[in-house]
Structure formats: C-alpha cells, structure tokens
Design brief:
Helix content is about 25%, strand content about 30%. The protein is of the alpha/beta class. A hairpin with a 2-residue loop joins strand 7 and strand 8.
Length: about 240
C-alpha cells in the first residue's frame, strides 16, 4: 500500500502465490505461479480499508529487517572507538586483536541474559547467515532506517589467561543455544585492569525473564570498575 495514505485514497497491490499444477523436469523456472492485483480507491475502497486494518494489526509482529555489510576497520580505528570507555582509554594497538573464539573458552562478567533482548538478537543472527558473514565480524548495519557500525563482542583477556565477556553476551548466548555455530569473531582486549565482578564460565549463564539488578547479576560487584559500553554504542550510531 501507499504508506500513510489511509483508506479511500492511494492504491494497494496484493500478490498471491500458488503452486503450479504441473512442473516439467526440464523447467528451471519457479515452481509457483504469481498473480498481482492493483486496487484503486474509486473501485476498491472497501478492500483498501480492510488491507489497512490488517496491516495495522499485524505489522508489529513482523521480523525486523536488517542489512549487513562486512567492514574491515584497522586496529587503530578500533582502539579509538572503544577508547570511549574509561578503562580502554590508554590501550595501545598491541592490546587489541580480532580473534575467532569458541564459546567453551569464554567466561562472563554477568550471571544472566534477559529473555526479551534474546528475541531481538535472533533477527541479527539470521542477517549474518543471510549475507554470508561470519558471526560476529565488524559490520555496517542498517535497520529501521538507521545506519551504524556493529562491533564484535568485547572480550577482556585477564593476566591468568581467562577470556571474559564484557559486552555481547546476548549475541553469543543466542548463537550458542539456537544455532549449530559455537565460534564467533570477538574483539579481544588486554591490559584493561580489574573486572567489575568475579567471572563465571559461559556454561553457567542463565536466561532471566526480567532484568536483574547489577548487584545480583554480577558476583562481588564493584561499580567503580563497571565498563560503560553504552559510550561505545553512542559513538557507533553515527559511523
């Protein structure tokens, strides 16, 4: 339909799809027949009104459309981007690497992931596969008319060698539990200092139906050490 026109004005187009009654083994065309019908307000005001009502009742449940384009930022560009976070301000290029990691090797700062956020991640995973891009390589992303840059999950490597997720847990959790993929490209950071909580192994993270307070979601939580990852998100919206 013509967007924002309303019933009785503009036009609407409906397309029906039906299986062909017979298919030749040498026929390489579609197995379906398509039929399009244009509705004009002078003749089809009732149908246009019905289509508007149907769309208004259904559109909120439609899957989110996401377009991804792989990008290859330099390590120095990545350093400047994540430098928005206080603990990453003084990192050098040698402290930052892009690596493909197995979820079995990862630990987490948090104990839970919020179920509602997992639903939104599913469309993103589908987009990675649709565009033939490895989970979770750096990408230019376009959705809901907005453009930006999507970084891989941020992993901090501790002095004892532990690889701890500080951002991107929902993406990694959904990938590991809803797909066959168990490896993802991550942004690995070294030398960022003490963590805001005692890490747990990835396998111990559980799904929660509601948001859990930080004091409960993080073991031995220290607010002064919390990573303000949203500062990176705000910077990436314009990139």
């Amino acid at each position: 339909m013509d967007a924002g026109i309303g019933a009785g004005r503009g036009t609407a187009l409906t397309v029906s799809k039906s299986p062909k009654s017979s298919i030749s083994v040498t026929d390489q065309s579609s197995m379906f027949d398509y039929s399009a019908l244009r509705h004009l307000p002078a003749n089809d005001a009732t149908q246009i009104d019905m289509l508007h009502q149907l769309f208004e009742s259904a559109w909120k449940s439609f899957p989110q459309g996401i377009i991804l384009n792989k990008t290859v930022p330099s390590i120095d560009e990545l350093r400047k981007i994540i430098g928005q976070v206080e603990q990453y301000e003084r990192l050098g290029v040698d402290d930052i690497k892009l690596k493909k990691l197995s979820v079995d090797s990862l630990y987490s700062c948090c104990r839970t992931v919020k179920a509602k956020k997992l639903d939104r991640v599913w469309g993103l995973l589908d987009a990675y596969q649709k565009f033939g891009i490895d989970f979770f390589e750096p990408c230019k992303v376009e959705t809901d008319g907005q453009k930006g840059t999507l970084l891989p999950p941020i992993i901090e490597q501790q002095t004892d060698g532990k690889l701890v997720i500080v951002d991107g847990m929902h993406r990694l959790f959904q990938m590991a539990t809803r797909t066959e993929k168990q490896q993802a490209v991550c942004l690995v950071v070294s030398g960022a200092g003490a963590l805001p909580s005692t890490p747990i192994h990835f396998s111990e993270v559980r799904m929660s139906p509601t948001k859990v307070p930080r004091s409960e979601n993080f073991a031995n939580y220290d607010h002064d050490l919390f990573r303000d990852i949203k500062a990176i998100d705000r910077s990436l919206k314009s990139r």
